[in-house]
Amino acid sequence: RLLGLVEHTGAHALFIFNHRRMAITGEDVTLDEIIPISHDFEIVEVRGLELELEVRLPFGSHTRLFLHEVNKAWSGKMQLLHLPGSCIGLFSGMLPTLPSLHRKGKGEDRNDLVRSSSHTMSNKAQMLTMPQFGLRDNLIRCELLKSEELYTYVKNFRFFVGTYNVNGQAPKESLRPWLSYSPDPPDLYCMGFQELDLSKEAFFFNDTPKESEWMRAVSEGLHPDAKYALVKLVRLVGIMLIFYVKKEHASFISEVEAETVGTGIMGRMGNKGAVAIRFRFHNSDICVVNSHLAAHIEEYERRNQDFREICTRMQFRQGDSSLPTLSIMKHNIVLWLGDLNYRISELEVDEVKNLIAKKDFETLHRYDQLKRQIDEEAVFKGFVEGEIAFQPTYKYDTGSDQWDTSEKCRVPAWCDRILWKGKNVQQLTYQSHMTLKTSDHKPVSSLMEVGIKVVNEDLYKKTFEEIVRNLDKMENECIPSVSLSMREFHFRDVKFMQRQVEMLTVFNDGQVPCQFEFIQKLDEPSYCKPWLTANPCKGFLAQGSRMDIELEVFVNRSTATQLNSGCQQIEDILVLHLDRGKDYFVSVTGNYLPSCFGTALHTLCLLREPIQEMPLETIKELDINNLMTEKPLDIPKEIWMMVDHLYRNASKQEDLMQQPGLRNEFEEIRDCLDTGTPDSLPGSNHSVAEALLLFLEVLPEPVVTYSLYQQCLDSSSNHALSKKVISMLPQCHKNVFNYLTAFLRELLKNSAHNHLDVNILATIFAPLLLRSPRKQDLGEKRKTQDFLRHFLDPDLK
């Protein structure tokens, strides 16, 4: 069954649904009963009572969140529910007391699938972080996690992990040779796809019919000797990850979350990046990542950067919103698969093919970029990859086993890889599947035997009771206290989009464990300023233990403008609060170096010198009073430098505006624009192009001002009206718009080389030049693109 909380015009009710199979859409469920949340509604802990209706809920974050929301709904009718501590380790029951709703419980053939309401022991320790529980229960949770070996044992399960770059093709053959090659059916399937759809519609709107086509092919290709339940599917443009589990194991899967990270141009476009699913299987936390990293043989540094970006930005929310997010590496086991795009270098194509013909994969592997980067600890530190005993999986002529015969004649490479990190993992097979010929890649699979921690319920109960007895003895004995490694932190020369981190160490020097949290100050929305974060911002410390807290300063588009103008400074006070203890104060200061990124166009037009050569007071005066001593520049010199560089060096650059640059090169470009040194822009063409896009994105007032945004939408279908709107812009904004669109028209003259067209440029530049003051819907987005096309395509007149 499914249990839903429904709100309508201020009234609340519980809806109980039946479902015969995995509930995906409304057609899969039927409404069985409605229970109003009224004055007669009651939630009780069940202890062997004879009930007319009993609803058992699984332990875990979803149940905690659900009960919390029910409590909020009920609190308007009665006093807020307090769950007694004795319900720990049992289950929560809900009992309506309205006579008209009483009914005898029906016998139910309980569904085995992931969304069933069957009781699982696997995440009992996690339920103790419910908001209703305080320090005592966090102590219990901590002790349970520390004592995990006392009540768990390791049991092996078979995981099928597979990756397939399908090159935008539809499925044309059965996937059973890939998915069902082993005699015994796996317990879990994790399958990653890349380049699911290469169309512009998929790239720009993240919508593709290929998803359902490949889903069907996967479902038909699963091992025929077992029945499987779909747990989760996640997709970012053409990167898709599918997770199936044997039906008999489905009730032991919990805390399923999925996230995506785009690493394409400006760190957002999803043509490259990763998707990931994290879940709890029995008592083990597992994260599966499917990534598609940057292409081209010489771009291994960009691939390394993509890997680091994915690890940093992929954060999973926990069911309890008060808990910090989980990164990829904070799991017991990490499985990483995908088209990692690392190539074979320093060998000519004929030398590579000769080694393949001899099956001398050991020698060939020495020239593999991924192996070299791992050996240098540049990426995948702590990960393991099995021995490669199969020929490279890229690049083939589609529909054959013939190496690439195109004009480019790509060097064969092991682009498609599977790695893992964690204990109790044994790889049984690692191979490619040459019989599949749909794509220019071959699919790869790894069959792994993974040791999973399983709970022994009797030992769990015994351990739990012993922990509670020990805590009872020490309750209220002492007031907690900590010592801090430092009380004052100074961040020197903070720059736009450049992370700085200092470490604060908190040591529990008291006689009891303690719980800490950075708390809000009076009349402030958060515990810290928006440019500052503390990670973790809350935590638990056992007696005599210590924790390192990262204090990170990072200035982005939301904070740069105020810092550039001097209206705000790098100054804050953090308040570290101990539960049942005192508060500690941490001072954070720094000096920010103003940047052209995040500075208004009209201010930049008044600055003839680089922004860091100007006194902050002068910038502030210019910004506030529009003070002019001489004629302003027609356009900001920073825009001219970037556009002029691209016009002279990159008009024919392949994939310009579509391939991201390197982070370290962006920092050099930013410093050059802000200081005037060196005279010419450093970095690759892709890095300069991305810097230009970022510059436009972080303008406090976009090129087409907010005041004229609606008129742009209204005139988007008329060329003459569109030109009239631009003529109404302030002079510097009008100059920048005309200058940029003239540059884009020059790029289109070289479309045969740079692969750009009007639609691509309109899609990239419209959200930057015509930013909405509110959230855009799809119709608005299309209108802004139509508006910009009038200035890119003369035929539209």
From TrEMBL:
The gene is INPP5B. It is an enzyme of class 3 (hydrolase). SUPFAM superfamilies: DNase I-like, GTPase activation domain, GAP. The keyword Membrane applies. Keywords: Cytoplasmic vesicle, Endosome, Hydrolase, Lipid metabolism, Membrane. Its main location: membrane. CDD domains: INPP5c_INPP5B, RhoGAP_OCRL1. It holds the Pfam family INPP5B_PH. It comes from Scleropages formosus. This is phosphoinositide 5-phosphatase. One of its GO terms (biological process) is phosphatidylinositol dephosphorylation.
